[in-house]
From TrEMBL:
The keyword Acetylation does not apply. PANTHER family: HTH-TYPE TRANSCRIPTIONAL REGULATOR BETI (PTHR30055:SF234), HTH-TYPE TRANSCRIPTIONAL REGULATOR RUTR (PTHR30055). It comes from Giesbergeria sinuosa. The keyword Transcription applies. InterPro entries: Homeodomain-like_sf, HTH-type_TetR-like_transc_reg, HTH_TetR, Tet_transcr_reg_TetR-rel_C_sf, TetR_C. Residues 45-64 bind DNA. This is TetR/AcrR family transcriptional regulator.
Length: 230
C-alpha cells in the first residue's frame, strides 16, 4: 500500500499552552493588589496590571470593565470576603468574650495585617478623598461589616456581664484604632513610629488587648479617681 505524504513525515505533536479560564481573574487580582499597594490607586495603570499578569489589556477588561471594578474586586477578595467567615466563627464561639476579642485581633493580623492586603488600608487613607466611588465601596465592604462585627462582640460581653456598659459607637473605634496604627506602622513606619522603637506585631496586639480589657487604673483606685473627675 503506497504511503501518503503524511505517512512519510515524522509525527509532530504540537502542545498548545492552555491557561485555565478561571485562573486569569485570580492572576489579575494578584497583580493588581501588588501594584495598588506599591504605587497607589491613581498611579496604577490597567495596562501595567495586565502586563504583570501576562495578559493583554483587552483580556483584563473582559473580567473587570474599569479600574474601579478591578480595585473593588481586590478589596472584596482580600478583605471583604473574610467577614462571612468571622461572623460564622462569632456564632460558633464557645469561650469568653475577652477570648473572642483577643482572637479577633490575632485573626485579623493573620489574614489581613500580615499580608499585602494591609496596604489597601493605607491606600484608602491617602486617596479616598480623590476617589469617592471606591471610598464608598470600601466603606460598604470593609468598614461597615468590620464595625458591625466588633459591635456584636462588645454587645455579647455586655449582655453576659463580662463588660461594663459602654457607648458602643465610641468603643468600636477604641478597638479598631490599634489595628489602624499597626497597619500604618508597617507601611509608613518613619511617620508613625519613632526610629528607636521596633514594633513587634504579636506583642503589640497582646498589649493593646490587655489595655482594652483592663485599662490603666489600678482596680482599687478606679472608683475614687473616676468619682473625683465627675
Amino acid at each position: 500500500m503506497p504511503s501518503t505524504p503524511s505517512d512519510s513525515l515524522p509525527l509532530k505533536t504540537t502542545r498548545i499552552r492552555v491557561r485555565r479560564k478561571q485562573a486569569r481573574p485570580a492572576e489579575l487580582l494578584d497583580a493588581a493588589l501588588d501594584l495598588f499597594v506599591e504605587k497607589g490607586y491613581a498611579a496604577t495603570k490597567v495596562e501595567t496590571v495586565a502586563a504583570r499578569a501576562g495578559v493583554s489589556k483587552g483580556t483584563l477588561f473582559l473580567y473587570f470593565p474599569s479600574k474601579a471594578d478591578l480595585f473593588n474586586a481586590v478589596v472584596r477578595e482580600n478583605i471583604g470576603i473574610r467577614f462571612r467567615q468571622w461572623n460564622q466563627e462569632f456564632e460558633a464561639f464557645q469561650g469568653s468574650t475577652a477570648d473572642m476579642l483577643r482572637y479577633c485581633y490575632h485573626s485579623w493580623w493573620e489574614h489581613v495585617g500580615a499580608t499585602k492586603a494591609s496596604g489597601i488600608t493605607k491606600l484608602m487613607l491617602c486617596e479616598a478623598g480623590n476617589f469617592p466611588e471606591i471610598a464608598l465601596f470600601y466603606q460598604r465592604e470593609v468598614s461597615e461589616p468590620g464595625h458591625a462585627l466588633i459591635r456584636r462582640i462588645l454587645q455579647r460581653g455586655i449582655d453576659s456581664g463580662e463588660f461594663r456598659s459602654v457607648d458602643l459607637d465610641y468603643a468600636v473605634h477604641a478597638v479598631v484604632s490599634p489595628l489602624m496604627f499597626l497597619t500604618l506602622s508597617q507601611h509608613a513606619s518613619l511617620a508613625c513610629v519613632p526610629g528607636s522603637l521596633t514594633v513587634s506585631p504579636p506583642l503589640y496586639l497582646e498589649n493593646q488587648i490587655n489595655m482594652l480589657l483592663h485599662g490603666l487604673l489600678q482596680p482599687e483606685a478606679g472608683p475614687g479617681i473616676l468619682k473625683s473627675q465627675a
